[in-house]
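G., before I forget:
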Amino acid sequence: MERQLTALLAVALVAGCAAPQAQPQLVNQQQYAKAVQDSSARFTWPDGRKPDLAVLAEKSGPGPDRAPAGSERIVLEMTNSCAWYLGWEDARKRGDRTAESKALEVMDEVLPKFSPEDPDGQRYAREAAAKAKKGDGSLAADYVANNCESVRWK
Amino acid sequence: MKRVIAVVAAVGFAMLSAAPAQAASTTITVPFKKDQITWFTNARTITVAGSNIDARVALGGVMQLAWYKCGDRNTRGSFVRMEETRKHVGTNFRAGTKFCLASNSPYTEGTVGGTLWWSGN
C-alpha cells in the first residue's frame, strides 16, 4: 500500500513536470470515423483495392475509448501500403504490365515516405520496393500477411 | 521531500530530452487514464523475426501497457503492469509487423516515462 501511494504521488509529480509538453487532443469513435473518411481522399488506390472505410474506422478506431487526434493518418498509410502491395501482386498475376509498373512506382517513391516517425518502417518499405523490382515479393507479402488481414476491399 | 521532487523533476526532464539510444529502442512518455484505454497510433515496425516488445517505466506499479495491431484494435495483447524493471509487453512477433501501444490504469491518471524495446530484442 505504501509503495502504491508513493508511486501515485510520484506519477502526479511527473505529470506536473511534463506539463509544458501539450497533452494530445483526443477524439471519440465518431470523430475518428469522420477523420478517416475525410483523409482517405488524400491517397490514391489501385483498381480493386479500395478499403471499406466504415469497416476500417470501426476496426482501427477507439470504440468506447479515445484516440489521439490525427491518428487516422497512420492507419490510412498502412492500409494504402497494403493496397499497393496487393495491387502489385494482382497486376503481376493478370499480366498487366502497366498496372504492375504503376504499383512499383508507388512502392518505390511513395510508400517509403510514409510514417517518418517509424524509420524501421521506412527502411522496410525501401527494401520491399527494391526486392519487388527484382521480382521478389517476399517482403511485400510479409507486410500484407502481418498488417492487412482485417482490411475489407471494395 | 525536496530531494524527492528534485529527483522526479530530473527524471521528467531526462524523459523529455533523451534521444533514442538505438534503432530498436526509444524513450517513451506515456499518458494514461483511470479505467479508460488510450489508443496510441505511433506505429513501430518489427524488422527481426521473433522479436519481443519490452518496456520499463521510471515509476512502476501504476500504468499498464498493451500492444495492438495499429489497424485492428481487437488484435492485441493483454495489458501488462509496467514496472521499473524491463518486462515483456508481447513476444515472438513476425518481421514486417507494425504494432501500436495502448495504456490504461486501474488507479489514477497521469503521465509516466520509460524505455521501449522492440526489433532484435
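Residues 25-147 of chain A form one domain. The longest strand of chain A covers residues 26-27.

More on Monday.
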